Amino acid sequence: METISEPKLLQTLRGHRGEVTCVDAFGAWLVTGSGDRTLRLWRWVIGSGWEELATARGAHRYGVTGVRWSDSGALLASSGVDGVVRVWSGRSLASRRTLAAPNATAARALCWAGGGRLVAGHDDGALCVWLVPRGDLIARLVAHQGSLQAISIPARRTLLLTACTEGVLKVFDLIEICKSGLTGDDRPTPAPLTWIDSAHDLGVLCADAAEDSCLAATGGHDALIRVWRAVPGEEGRRAGGMEAAGVLEGHAAAVTALRWAHGGGEADELLASSSLDRTARLWAPASEACLHVVHAHPRYLTCIALSYDLQYMVTGSNDKSVRMWSLSRLTLDDDLDPSCPTLMHFGLGDLEGIEPVASDELDLETENEQGLEAEGGRACRVWRDTEAHTGAINCITTHGDLLATASSDGLVKIFRWCEPGPEAGAAGELRVEHVLEAHRYPALAVEFGAGGALLLSAGLDGYAALWDVQVGCQLRALSVPAGAGAEGEAGGGGVRGARVSPHRPPLLLLATDDGLAPLWSLADQDPKPAQLIHVYGGHAEAVTCCAWSRDGRLLATGAASGELRLHAPPPAPRTLHHEPHAHDLGVQSCDFSSSVSMLDLSSSEDSYLLATGGCDSLIKLWIIVLDQDMAGDRASVRLMRQFEAHGGGVTCVRWGSDESSALLASAGADRWARVWRAGGAGGVRASCAVPAAGAAARGALAAALLGRALLAVGSLGGELALWRLAPDDDALDDDEGAAPRFWGEAGVARWLREYVTRPGESHTEPRELEKRLIQRVRVAAVTGTSLLDDSIEDLLDKLGYGKNEEDEDHPEKEDEDEKATIRERLVDEIKWLRRDPPPPLLAGRAPHALLCPLSHRLLREPARAADGFSYERANIHEWFVAAEGAVSPVSGRRLTNTRVMPNYALRNALRDFLQEHGHWLQ
Q1: CATH classification (class only), 345-363+733-916
Q2: What distance in Å separates the CA atoms of residue 496 and residue 490, rounded to the nearest whole number?
Q3: Which residues contact 493 (CB under 8 A, 6 or more apart)?
Q4: d(CA 229, CA 506)
Q5: Cα(first)–Cα(last) distance of the chain, in Å?
Q6: What are the tens digits of pLDDT across the range 587-612?
């Protein structure tokens, strides 16, 4: 605090054509965002100051509202009025993730929560939590009635503070929020630990929290800054909410932005603020004193940032400029990047197990050089035809490498996917096999059958047609005659859905505007019209969709009235179940999954999983069990999950064709196509979102998965695009690189292996010891939160190393010396996890080898990557996301893998350094 001098203007940056709305700094890197929809990346150059390195024009469809660097500086996130959050490479502004929440309004607040989690607040009061490495939306809840303008993560990232334009402030347990799931799930909504209705008169505009302390601050329209302090929690919680800790008065108008600088304790904390009164202020919150007032711009200020080492401050304004202020003796001739002899980060300590670097590999190629466009959450667009059809693409179906589309131009097209190669190019190619003039009016449905040999299409002309896929000729034409229904209902209306059963010969099911679902048989080999064998009636309005189960024992129909019906096929066709209010305003699409085993639910041969999408913006997952005790006369139906999927309605839902696939594709009127991943215990996560092809104002009408790797998306404008999904998604470990508080069973097990059972010598076989310890972790449900908050003696008891613990599962008692060694190691490692973080300025005294080469900050958990260099464990995993793979941050060469291992020698050196300076254990 004593080093802070009167701020001096060093440089003014211009380039944005609109108001500068957000700014953030990370050492020698600066990023700015504007209402002109652009992001600009700046790099510090000695003698010149900030020079523009990259520009992302059209970073968001509308204005940019926020931007924040991650802890490593490898990634940065931006939010926009379009409701989308995007993650970029912090070194090139290359897009890495597009995070589009369903029905999202403008995103106004943004905050990294650690462990790859990113939190965003929206105008409708919704709070979204994203797992960035996967691109998954893991939690969404409506936390406020007003616009959620302020988010911060105080108390060492154990709490989540939110505040809105109605002046309401809430504080939640961060872990509970991350585990709360999506809107519409039947999981309980986390209750706030603190709820204050009048935190600021006229509403809250901004918030920020000290990184490693218990303080946070909010600013609002009342021109006040309120400081909040975390209070101790009950029942083992480290923090149980927040209480008022002071008020900072001085601004003459609304406070627009806040930013903490992190000292070694509350007395050393520094807070910067910007305001509509055209000033920036520096505060000492501990004494509630204003240290400096800076008349920063001729127009009002919108944003502010502080450097980590308190060398400079940056302000942004409505005058379209960004200004940099020196807070010390910094000049344009100084360097903001510390001198980094990279060899000091190589091979300190344990060199065994370093993976070789392929010397013939060049630097990572860009997406454009590979012919790919990275726009989705974890997807790259590999193929695109802007004129696939002259009308809307209403339906897409796939089988193997075949893909077919039905369009409002009346055409049906059959494509074949050619994998990347000499003939198909580096990205692959979708080639047209047949163009079928199928219908006089819009073609609305298309479906492969008979192992891809047949194609069924249907349209508004009231006909369905059966095609030979190999030669592209029509085999049969189907139409529903008048009076075909069981009670004389009219026939002959438009056909909106068409599905082929897995039977041999197949049955053809149609969904018509007349409220009928006729069923046709192909048993007759005569090329005349197929035989109409049954008509499922009783629907109040038009039947809009239909689907077969994968074994052909069950079929479903959905109607514009919102009803869902389940039917039995011949030889005894009948209705088994009627759900009159499945979706408000109508069911638009339905599809059966191949199995329910992927959900870890009790299932049998008589269990089915059905997904439905409706005009109410919801996707619903239904568990259906055929009742054999009633001779198949009924089916029990249970709504397992429902979640908001697309604003304006869900136009399409399709499960992956792979029998073990847990992926569900959907499209909607909100201009996005999404891929959802079904997980254990019925959980569902939004895995990725890709924008609809064509003009920004046009929606996505159809989506389907081509194999397990490709997503096909058709738009209202007739454009067709293929996106390649990230491979080996199941191989990602959500606990790897995450902060201990986010650890589940896998994270705790890894911690035991790496720091408790493997280091040192033991008379017991390490893997046998690991097996017993991990089993105890599983039985006692020990999580990362438990390691941080539970008493050490309770933890030792749960792990079988209490003072009077006897191992009943292991008849041969461990050697007492060995048991004492493991117990001592457990206590030592638990205390290491709970240690107070060292003050940031301590990095200036540390040997260079104890700094992370990515962030130049003091290491906390040093880990060695395959390039032989050691990094902060969380930072190197963020870098792999930024680089889109195993690439060395130091050399730029490709690595053989993304695995990292603890560097025990470097860790011991870090312990010695912290102990020497009095900042080791509590």
Answers
A1: alpha beta
A2: 16
A3: 462, 480, 512, 513, 514, 516, 542
A4: 68
A5: 25
A6: 999 999 976 665 555 555 678 999 99
